[in-house]
Amino acid sequence: MNIDILFLDNELTDYEQFFDKKQFEEYCETHSFTGKQNQILSVPPSFSKDLNPTFLVGTGENNDDINLYDIGISIGSKIESDAEINFLNIDDDTNLIIDGILYAQYKFDDYKSGDSSSINTISFKDIESTENEIKKDSVFWVRDLINTPALDKSPEVFIDKVNELVDSSMVDVQIYDKKWLEENNFGGVLGVGKGSDRPPYFLVGKYNPKAKYQVSLIGKGVLFDTGGYSLKSPSGMETMKTDMSGAASAWGVINIVARTNQDIGLTVYTPIVENMVSGSAIRPGDVLKTRNGKTIEVMNTDAEGRLIMSDALAFAAETNPDLICDIATLTGASVVALGLDIGATFSNNNDLEKKFIECAKSIKEDFHPLPLFDGYRKLIDSDLADMKNTGGRFGGAITAALLLKEFIGENDWIHLDIAGPARSDNRKGATGFGVLSLYEFFKNLN
Question: What is the pLDDT of residues 373-415, one digit of tens each?
C-alpha cells in the first residue's frame, strides 16, 4: 500500500496537485480541518488524484512547535498493513516522524492463542531510513525481552537473546558464570542471586576497544524481583519481570552503536540475577563484600539493584574509561519524585549531564536531574559495615545514587534511574525508554 502524508499550513495551500479543489475544501470543512498545528485528518483514497490514502498534517503558521514524533505515533497506529510512505510538502528533518510511525507498529502477542499478526513492514519513499530501522529493531528487541514473562526468561535465555541480537555485529560478548563471580569477588551479585535456583551470570559486551573515547555502560539485570525476605506485595510483584529493563536497554544501545559504526568505544556490563526467597537467600542484616572490597550491610533485601550494580560499576571503573553510565529501574523514590514519564539523572559532571538531557529531549524522551547531595551520605552509614543499602524513607533515589557513587572511582559518571518510564502507562508493557537517549548522547560525544 502507498500512503501519502501531506503537510499543510493554516492557509491550506499547495494541495491542488494532489486533490480536486472543491472536493478537498468541502472534506476539510466537514471534518473541521483548518491546518492548525498538530492537527491530523485521514482522507480516503478516492479523494486523491493518485488514489492513495492520505493523512493531512497541520503545521499552523510555522513548523517550530510541531510534534513530529507524536504525529508519527498517531499516524503509525492507524496503519494496518505493510506500506510505503511518501512525505509531501515538508523540508524539515523527517527522522522523528519516521521513528514515531515505526515504533507505533510494535506488537507483543506471543502469549495470545490463535494466529499472531506480524509487525507491519514500513518503508519511506526517497528517504534513507537505515539508521531508523536499526534503532527500531533494537528497541523492539528490548521491549520483547522485557515483556517476556520471568518463567521463560532464565539467565541462559537472556544470554541466548543477547547473542542473537549482536550476531554479525562488531560486538564481542563475554559470558562469566557463578564460579568466575566467586573467584573475582562479586559479592553483591552472588548475594542477591543466592535465593534462586537459577545461578547468576555476568555479561560483558565490547565494541571498538581501540577507539580514542571509551564509555562503560552498566545495566541492572534482575530478571525477577520478589523483594527477597523484604517481600514485595502481590501487586508490587506484578511488574517485576521488567526489573531487567536496564540490562536489556544496555544491550540495545551497544547494538545500535555497533551497527551504525560510531567512532567511540563502548563496553556493556550486565549482572544477570533473580532476587528470590528460599532457605539460601540473604537476610536483612547480612553483610556483602563487593568487587572493590567495600562492604554493604543489607538492611532491605528489596534494595537489591544497587548491590549488583556496585560490583559492575567497580569492575568497569578499573579500566578508567572516559565515562561511566548506568541505567536501572532502581528506586520507587524516583517515581514518587518525577512520576511515570520522566527519568532521573545523577552525575558528578554537570556539563555531561546537561548534554545528555539535551540529547534525550531531541528524541522526545524526558530526563530531569536530581542532586547528588553529599549531606545525605551519612544516611547510609552503617555501624557494622562500610555502608548500608538503604538510607531510610526520604530521599531514596538520592541515597541509592550516593551508594553507587562509592564504586565509580575518579571517573566521570551519569546514573539513570528509569523506574517510572521503563514501563508504559498500564504499568505492564515495556517502553524501551532510555535506549535512544543514550545512543543519541554517545554518538555526539566526539
Answer: 999 999 999 999 999 999 999 999 999 999 999 999 999 999 9
Residue written as cell 539513570? 416
- Model confidence pLDDT, tens digit, residues 189-214: 999 999 999 999 999 999 999 999 99
Domains delineated in the chain: 2-127 (3.40.220.10), 132-443 (3.40.630.10)
Name residues whose C-beta falls within 8 Å of residue 395's C-beta, 6 or more positions apart in sequence: 333, 373, 376, 379
* 232 in catalytic set: yes
Query: What is the rounded radius of gyration, in angstroms, for the C-alpha atoms of the chain?
Result: 24
Q: Evaluate whether 123 touches 129 at the Cβ level (below 8 Å).
A: yes
Catalytic pick among 259, 294, 306, 423: 306
Q: Which amino acid is residue 414, in one-letter code?
A: I
Give the span between the Cα atoms of 330 and 370, in whole angstroms: 14
Instruction: Tell me the C-alpha distance between 215 and 244, whole Å.
Output: 21
Please identify every stretch of the chain with a pLDDT value under 70, giving residue numbers as ranges: 63-64, 115-116, 425-428
Distance CA 36, CA 61 (A): 8
Q: What is the pTM of this model?
A: 0.96
Report phi then psi at 209, rounded to 5: -70, -10
Question: What are the backbone dihedrals phi and psi of residue 221, each rounded to the nearest 5 degrees, phi first?
Answer: -120, 60
For 392-419, b/e burial (b = at least 16 CB within 10 A) is eeebbbbbbbbbbbbbbeebbbbbbbbb
Yes or no: say if 159 and 145 are a contact pair by the CB < 8 Å rule. Answer: no
> What is the number of residues in the chain?
446
Phi, psi of 298 (to 5 degrees): -85, 100
List 161, 206, 232, 355, catalytic entry: 232
- The torsion of the CA quartet 68, 69, 75, 79, rounded to 10 degrees, works out to 140
Helix (H) or strand (E) holding 273: strand 265-275
What's the CA gap between 422 and 432, in Å, rounded? 6
Q: How far is CA 269 from CA 147, 237, 249, 363, 406, in A?
A: 21, 25, 11, 25, 17
Nearest CA among 312, 233, 316, 220 for reference residue 273: 220
The reported pLDDT for the residue numbered 429 is: 87
